[in-house]
Write a structure and sequence with these properties.
heterodimer; A: about 625 residues; alpha+beta; Penicillin-binding protein 2a (Domain 2); Beta-lactamase; 2 domains; 5-stranded antiparallel β-sheet; 22 helices; 23 strands; about 35% helix; elongated; B: about 400 residues; mainly alpha; 15 helices; 3 strands
Chain lengths: ~625, ~400
């Protein structure tokens, strides 16, 4: 501290008001004070916040997509794989906000791709509307090498354009299993919102349907993160510690490629809409599941055209996207009869030896109920009623069980009227008609539903009327019959495996219910079904009579409104100790023995042919 | 260091170190602050540009050193001239000032959006930088000159007009520099003892004028400022995230300063190293200092300015004549005003005006001109010393 000398000021300065210096000094001091205070506030008080901002500023994180896991059949055949594709994307940050500049960009980029500016603009707008903010805007996939090279050479002219290698699903088996496998798609803003716990970001892919959706967590893997140090122009300066992408686990399905192919191709050869399900009666594993008509799953790897979307849902094309095997709700006809028979036996209405005189028609409540073609079968017991498919035998059971819930309860025990719990989405629950339900439906929609009457229970007894079930539900019910009464949850996933092939998780058989069937009763029914398939008077003898493996099988023919009948077949094989249940249906396919049974035969031939080949070293044949 | 403050009763002055090396009578603290700031500038330019300039990383330091050397020589030379001589040359200086600014209109080259430089051999010269000093020297002379002529009102108007002519001319080239001119004019008027009522009237008229230029005329569809000027002036009010926006760049400077924290980030100063901070050698060099060396470094720079300002203020009272007082007031105001506007811009509390940070920002014209100002201050100090020594006190 220096001391100002206390001396008289020189005379000439006295006429200057000294406070003027103080004013200038004061102003300067205040200005400096403001700067000091602001500096202190920025650096010391809120410095951490700005440090974080600065760090975020200079690092750019690039998500490196992980390849999705593969989907295999039970023997390891690859059903879904990945391929890489060059995608041309626009960096949303680089796109000018000014309309004129943006139009110019669209024109320029469009020229390279061989499209007009309007095409680019539409892609851009679609992406902005549907994708989460900040997603790269994909203009085109599978870009030609020439375009890729051109853009790489002229990178400076196209700072907004990125060529990124992306993974796209590949289907080595073509259309096989299209309905099961499902599709993947880029995450939408909605997906992000709905799955906050998943590590998802804009630009990731997500399973949208089928196995891809159910096992998305397993298949997706985790993306790598390349962290780059960038300057203000986005130029990369160095790479910071990064993480590598972790490929997703593979999912091994219980599907048997051969069985699946046999089912699909034989259904396809008929050319009518239909479905098949092949299920292991002891474990619930689904060996084959298909729906016809089908579609090419690879169309979902690129943006769909409106025409493609329309075609997938077009009723005139029988809605190829619709999975009839799990979503179809049908009257099932005579293949339901074993359920009615077991209910009747349980109620004491019949015994295996009860004989009914089948005159080809019966009148119940003043209403005639006929056999198919009014064919009289004469005196029939339980076993023969199944062999020749006597409707009258079951009409009587339906009549006698009306007023009780006996038939409805047994149907419920077999798993009808509720979802089976299969591990792909899109299942329907079907319907068990009860007086209560029917009367309520009638009250709501009298033009579609009649009031409950005894005739409805009579119809129900042969799988007709308001009763509805999916082919999958039928397969679950026949599996229960085949394994002695255990209702199993059908499963497509066998196990998941990591990239090195090590098993990560395995699915276990899951019991969802028990049918309290008497083994003796079951035996009679199995005998009847065996006769139906393989004794000379059986309904499907002409199909299965020469089949070397003993099977149990039942034809079904359900009536369709204003259309030819629907053909059904349900089989358990081998007869002695059933391994698989096969259910086939063909819409507008006529009698069960006409279309559904031959498809079943093809499936069984494939299944047992493969077994035979396996036993005899690949040279054996079933024929 | 020699101090001029100690009262000396003895007629024989003590021989100080500065006198021994031929720098007799200089204000040591003033020289220390000015050279300290120059050293900060060189150090920062050396450290900050080392990794960022491809090809010629030392270019900035080398050239700035050269400018500093020329400036120091100029400073010493000017300090040995009796500044009172400039008063006699006021008309010539004033004419030269206006002519040099006019020359820019005729032969000027554009730099960073505004045309404010003359292309000379080896050197791009910005007349307005030297003009700050010239205006101070001439205007202070006119104040003394007219002290006894006319009424107080006439006096006020004459000084105002003499100040506003070059201010207006510069305004057409460079908004920031014209603000400095205006600040100089204002400071000299305050120091000259212009009535407060007159100053208040001028203040009101000026405020109204700014309001008309910035708000009313553009609203009426007659923009006076160019769009980029308007944007620069108003962007600090609304920091933008849009790259390329003036507000974005200013915000990046602010982020850099904040990130510096207490002790700075050194070579981890990514904001300034990787170009997020714009104009990091010139207008935003303070942000570089603050990010690299933190509050410690930035406060040191501000403290050196405070020291400089104090020494200049002090000369107002020490000056042997009123002319010196006015000149010191002008220089003090010019420097502190530029510091406030520049650092304020860095800190995000003032608009972007392109005013350099005196003695720190890279740039020959500004460095040399500012050192010449210091030279004039030294001259005032030396003269006061000599006068006082010849008298009986101090």
């Amino acid at each position: 501290m220096r001391i100002e000398p206390v001396v008289p000021r020189p005379r000439k300065k006295r006429n200057l008001p000294s406070r003027r210096y103080a004013v200038i000094g004061g102003i300067g001091l205040v200005l400096l004070g403001i700067l000091f205070f602001r500096l202190w506030s920025l650096q010391i008080v809120t410095g951490d916040k700005y440090l974080a901002e600065a760090n975020q500023n200079r690092t750019r994180e690039i998500r490196v997509p992980a390849p999705r896991g593969r989907i295999l059949d039970r023997e390891g055949n690859v059903l879904v794989d990945n391929r890489t594709s060059m995608a041309l994307q626009l960096d949303p940050i680089e796109i000018p906000t000014e309309p004129a500049a943006r139009r110019e960009l669209f024109t320029r980029v469009g020229e390279v791709l061989g499209h007009d500016a309007e095409w680019v603009r539409r892609k851009y707008r679609d992406s902005i509307e549907n994708d989460p903010p900040g997603s790269p805007i994909t203009l085109d996939q599978d870009v030609d090498d020439e375009i890729v090279y051109y853009l790489q050479e002229h990178q400076a002219d196209f700072p907004e354009v990125q060529i990124n290698r992306i993974f796209v699903r590949k289907y080595p088996q073509g259309l096989l299993g299209a309905h099961i496998l499902g599709s993947v798609g880029e995450v939408t803003a909605e997906d992000l919102e709905e799955n906050p716990d998943k590590d998802l970001a804009a630009g990731d892919t997500l399973g949208q349907t089928g196995i891809e959706m159910t096992y998305d967590d397993e298949l997706r893997g985790s993306p790598g993160l390349t962290r780059l140090q960038v300057d203000s122009t986005g130029r990369i300066i160095s790479q910071l510690p990064s993480s590598l992408p972790e490929p997703g686990d593979s999912v091994r399905l219980s599907i048997d490629q051969g069985v699946q192919l046999a089912g699909e191709s034989s259904l396809q050869s008929i050319g009518l809409p239909g479905a098949f399900v092949v299920m292991d009666v002891k474990t619930g594993e689904v060996l084959g599941l298909g729906s016809n008509p089908t579609f090419d799953p690879s169309i979902f790897t690129k943006p769909l055209t409106q025409q493609q979307v329309d075609d997938l849902y077009d009723e005139d094309l029988d809605a190829p996207l619709f999975d009839r095997a799990i979503g179809g709700q049908y009257a099932v006809g005579s293949i339901f009869k074993p359920v009615t028979a077991l209910a009747g036996l349980d109620a004491g209405l019949i015994t295996p030896s009860t004989v009914v005189n089948d005159a080809g028609t019966i009148t119940i409540a003043d209403q005639p109920f006929d056999n198919a073609g009014k064919t009289p079968h004469g005196p029939v017991d339980l076993r023969r009623s199944l062999e020749v498919s006597s409707d009258v035998y079951y009409y009587i059971l339906g009549r006698d069980m009306n007023g009780t819930r006996q038939l409805q309860n047994w149907a419920g025990d077999f798993g009808f009227g509720r979802a089976t719990g299969i591990d792909i989405p899109g299942e329907s629950e079907g319907l068990i008609p009860t007086p209560k339900w029917v009367n309520e439906a009638h009250a709501e929609q009298p033009e579609f539903y009649d009031r409950w009457a005894i005739g409805q229970n009579v119809q129900f007894a042969i799988g007709q009327g308001y009763f509805q079930a999916s082919p999958l539900q039928m397969a679950v019910a026949y599996s229960a019959l085949g394994n002695g009464g255990t209702v199993l949850r059908p499963k497509l996933m066998l196990q998941t495996e990591d990239a090195a092939g090590r098993v990560v998780s395995e699915s276990e058989p899951e019991v969802t219910g028990e049918v309290p069937m008497d083994p003796a009763d079951r035996q009679v029914i199995m005998e009847g079904l065996h006769d139906a398939a393989q004794s000379p008077e059986g309904t499907s003898y002409k199909v299965f009579g020469g089949f070397p493996v003993k099977i149990a099988g039942k034809t079904g023919t359900s009536e369709r409104t204003n259309e030819p009948d629907q053909s059904w077949y349900a089989a358990l094989a081998p007869y002695d100790d059933p391994e698989i249940a096969v259910v086939v249906t063909v819409e507008r396919g006529g009698f069960g023995a006409d279309t559904a049974a031959p498809v079943t035969l093809q499936i069984l031939q494939e299944y047992f042919g493969k077994q035979a080949r396996a036993v005899s070293g690949g040279t054996g044949s079933v024929e | 260091m020699e101090s001029s403050r100690l009262p000396r009763q003895a007629p024989e002055p003590r021989i100080g170190m500065l006198e021994r090396v031929g720098l007799a009578g200089m204000d040591g603290w003033l020289a220390f602050s000015a050279l300290g700031l120059l050293a900060c500038s060189l150090f920062t330019l050396y450290e900050a540009s080392g990794s960022s300039i491809v090809g010629a990383p030392e270019q900035y330091v080398q050239r700035q050193s050269l400018y500093g050397l020329v400036g120091i020589i100029g400073m010493i030379a000017v300090s040995r001239i009796d500044y009172s001589r400039f008063r006699e040359l006021r008309v010539g200086i004033y004419t030269f000032l206006c002519a040099s600014i006019f020359a820019v209109f005729a032969f000027g080259v554009a730099a960073r959006g505004s045309t404010n430089s003359l292309e000379l051999p080896f050197f791009t010269f910005q007349p307005a930088e030297l003009g700050k000093l010239l205006l101070i020297l001439a205007l202070a002379g006119f104040v003394i000159d007219g002290a006894r002529k006319g009424s107080e009102g006439q006096r006020t108007i004459r000084i105002l007009c003499l100040g506003l002519v070059p201010t207006g001319l510069v305004l057409l080239q460079d908004l920031g520099t014209s603000l400095v001119f205006a600040a100089i004019t204002f400071a000299i008027m305050v120091a000259a003892g212009i009535r407060w009522s007159h100053l208040a009237t001028i203040g009101v008229v000026l405020t109204a004028f700014v309001a008309v230029v910035l708000v009313a005329l553009p609203a009426a569809g007659m923009p006076v400022l160019k769009e980029y000027q308007q944007e620069r002036l108003t962007s600090f009010l609304s920091p933008s995230s849009d790259i390329g926006d003036a507000g974005y760049q200013q915000n990046q400077a602010k982020v850099g300063i904040g990130a510096g924290g207490t002790t700075g980030r050194g070579d981890q100063a990514t904001q300034s190293r990787f170009g997020f901070v714009p104009e990091r050698h010139t207008d935003f060099i303070f942000a570089v200092v603050a990010e690299r060396y933190g509050f410690v470094g930035a406060a040191l720079v501000l403290s050196l300015f405070a020291l400089l300002f104090w020494r200049a203020l002090r000369l107002m009272t020490l000056s042997k004549n009123f002319y010196g007082t006015l000149v010191a007031a002008g220089i003090a105001a010019a420097i502190i005003f530029q510091v406030f506007v520049n650092v304020g811009m860095n800190l995000g509390i003032m608009p972007i005006t392109g005013i350099p940070l005196p003695l720190v920002s890279y740039g020959g014209s500004a460095i040399i001109s500012t050192l010449l100002m210091i030279g004039v201050l030294q001259s005032i100090h030396i003269e006061s010393h000599a006068t006082q020594r010849s008298q009986w006190i101090d």
